[in-house]
Amino acid sequence: MAVLTNAPQKSESRILSEALVPKGSYVAVCLDVEDQFGVERMKYGSETEKEVVDLTTFYFGVKKGAESFVIRSKPFKLSLHEKSALYQFLKTWLNEAPTAGLDTLTMKGAGAQMTIDHNMSAKGRVYANIVSIAPVMEGLEKLVPPVGEFAKLLKPQAAVERDEIPF
Q1: SS3 per-residue string spanning the chain
Q2: How far is CA 147 from CA 42, 73, 154, in A?
Q3: Which residues pair with 77 in a beta bridge?
Q4: Taking the mean position of all CA atoms in its chain, how far away is CA 10?
């Protein structure tokens, strides 16, 4: 599936803008895919048992008029099981079931049609949520925004700084 990188377990947000993506349907572009491995979290359906999992998160760029926004998917457990959330997300986005060997990093630059809604976190914070995703409808491919238009809104994945190299 994904090509894993050494990303920190709990990293700060890569989205630089605090602007909330408005509710609605959009033609979007996949800006990046971030993979994390060895993340400890509560096991599904359990309040006490923890598990260590590998996760992948997709970042999308959308435009509303002249404004640009970045939204990220929820983190998905890397699983090709047909009942997994990642499998269902990719199946609806690609309009076909994902197969073994799919590198999620190849999704960078791919277009998507998505519907975004707002939800409230347990802490009372409103956030944008991708409620549906699909391939871009035929004839709308030209509406997929270029990845470069969102460069100022998304931090690049963490890289080793030159002055941190010990030699």
Answers
A1: CCCCCCCCCCCCCCECCCCCCCCEEEEEEEEEEEEEEEEEEECCCCCCCEEEEEEEEEEEEEEECCEEEEEECCCEECCCCCCCHHHHHHHHHHCCCCCCCCCHHHHCCCEEEEEEEEEECCCCCEEEEEEEEECCCCCCHHHCCCHHHHHHHECCCCCCCHHHCCC
A2: 34, 17, 11
A3: 55
A4: 15
- The answer to whether 155 and 37 are in contact (CB under 8 A) is no
Compute CA distances 29 → 37, 38, 69, 166, whole Å.
25, 28, 11, 38
Per-residue pLDDT of the chain (167 residues; tens, 9 = 90+): 554 444 444 556 788 888 899 999 999 999 999 988 898 888 888 888 998 999 999 999 999 999 999 999 999 999 889 999 999 999 999 999 998 888 888 999 999 999 999 999 889 999 999 999 999 999 999 999 999 999 899 888 754 333 344 43
Find, among 103, 88, 80, 85, the residue nearest to 30 by Cα: 103
Domains recognised in the chain with CATH numbers: 24-145 (2.40.50)
User: How big is the chain, counted in residues?
Assistant: 167
